[in-house]
Design goal:
This protein is 43% helix and 13% strand. The strands form two sheets. The chain has an eight-stranded parallel sheet. Strands 1-2 form a two-stranded antiparallel ribbon. Helix 4 packs parallel to helix 6, helix 7 packs parallel to helix 8 and helix 12 packs antiparallel against helix 13. With 367 residues, it is of the alpha/beta class. It is globular, with a radius of gyration of 20 Å. The chain folds into two domains: 244 residues, Aldolase class I (TIM Barrel, Alpha-Beta Barrel), CATH 3.20.20; 82 residues, no CATH class. It starts with a strand and ends in a 45-residue tail after the last helix. It binds flavin mononucleotide. The site of flavin mononucleotide has 25 residues, from strand 4.
Length: 367
């Protein structure tokens, strides 16, 4: 389906790294639904990893069902990046991704993240050190450039291809854009045209149709989905169905949404323990509820859960509370159905229909 260096993948759809979210429980939940092959961890500081920092180790925690796995590294010291890649290879990680798109000041200040995009030669040398050291594929994830006047991704991609990078993931926005404005499909296409290795497009894909448009308009070899997977963990399977079999996706039933959310919750508790798992789930659950229709009671209470029993009792109460909004067949009455999702690059230029996809609050909001 897609060859990534020495790695043969069954799907050309990828999960984008979302710091604080793309942990083992989330990856397992999505993998069980199908359509996804290579998934990635949150970004991991290369130095912390070689210093065996427990927090870095928790970020790369995996299991046999969580394969093949990519780990995303950030850092700017070539030896540290190389040694971290060697370590990851030695523990069976399938590929290593390098963060070149992170606009967070803490990461850019030390020369990692999108700062890498402004220094092609230095970055190519760092990547070469990693590629030469390991047999597993090394990939890079970047934005289009620093700002509209500096669209450096095509040149950087070419330079990295020259030192043996296996693929490029590109978020179709500049650093200056942050998360606002439209994803620039022409920008992604210019990266595709610049190289002969797989380019994976990314940004604002919230529906299978949007993934299809990204493939068609950019010629990319794969599509990577981040926030769209929060709303719709079935998006990988549905996109496969649409692309491979022309099958129009159906909205999953409410009961199925609840089943998957509970599975995610249980995995969270298994991996992080009841107390910490519940606290972490407080910021995850509101993403599921965005597609529940009326969810006032759920949203208010879920941010206080601290035990499994509390979560189960909240669900019972919520399902009763939601009854008046539901018809005889169990579906939401039309007036209460959430608006369809529209990707930024699918809307009419003048459209006022689309709300920007929310960016989760907290220290991660500067991504
Ligand atoms: C909360 C959050 C955390 C993110 N963390 C990372 C990260 O660790 N590494 C990275 O390369 N990109 C990160 N990103 C960027 C995403 O991987 C992706 O490029 C971006 O969200 C656009 O894709 P989407 O519209 O499908 O979400 C993050 C984005 C968000 C919203």
């Amino acid at each position: 389906m897609l060859q990534l260096g020495s790695l043969r993948l069954k799907s050309n759809l990828f999960l984008s790294p979302l710091a604080g979210y793309t942990n083992l429980p989330f990856r397992l939940t999505i993998r069980e639904l199908g359509g996804l092959d290579l998934a990635t961890t949150d970004l991991v500081n290369a130095r912390s990893l070689i210093e065996k920092n427990p927090k870095a180790f928790k970020l790369i925690e995996t299991s046999p069902a969580d394969q093949p796995l990519a780990v995303q590294l950030f850092g700017s010291v070539p030896e540290e990046m190389r040694d971290a890649a060697l370590y990851l290879e030695s523990v069976g990680v399938a590929s290593v991704d390098i963060n070149m798109g992170c606009p967070v000041r803490k990461v850019c200040r030390v020369g990692g993240g999108s700062a890498m995009m402004t220094e092609t030669d230095r970055t190519a040398a760092l990547v070469k050190g990693m590629v030469d050291a390991v047999k597993i594929p090394v990939t890079a994830k970047m934005r289009l450039g620093w700002d509209d006047q500096n669209i450096t991704a095509p040149d950087l991609a070419k330079a990295l291809e020259g030192v043996g990078i296996a693929a490029i993931f590109v978020h179709g926005r500049t650093r200056e854009q942050g998360f606002s404005g439209r994803v620039n499909l022409a920008g992604i296409r210019s990266v595709v045209k610049a190289v002969n290795i797989p380019v994976i497009g990314n940004g604002d894909v919230t529906t299978p149709e949007a993934a299809q448009v990204m493939f068609q308009e950019t010629g990319c070899a794969g599509v990577s989905i981040g926030r769209g997977a929060f709303y719709n963990p079935w998006i990988f399977l549905q996109t496969r169905d649409l692309i491979d079999h022309g099958k129009t996706p159906e909205e999953p039933a409410f009961s199925e949404r609840i089943r998957v959310m509970c599975r995610h919750f249980d995995l969270m508790l298994e991996v992080f323990g009841e107390s910490h798992g519940c606290r972490m789930f407080r910021k995850v659950a509101p993403w599921y509820s965005k597609r529940f229709g009326p969810a006032n009671l759920f949203n208010k209470r879920v941010v206080t859960i601290s035990s499994r029993a509390g979560f189960v009792s909240l669900l019972d109460d919520y399902i009763k509370w939601r009854q008046p909004f539901v018809d005889e067949t169990g579906g939401l009455k039309p007036a209460y159905q959430p608006a369809p999702m529209i990707a930024s690059f699918m809307e009419e230029p003048e459209s006022t229909q689309r709300e920007a996809i929310p960016v989760p609050k907290g220290p991660v909001e500067v991504w």
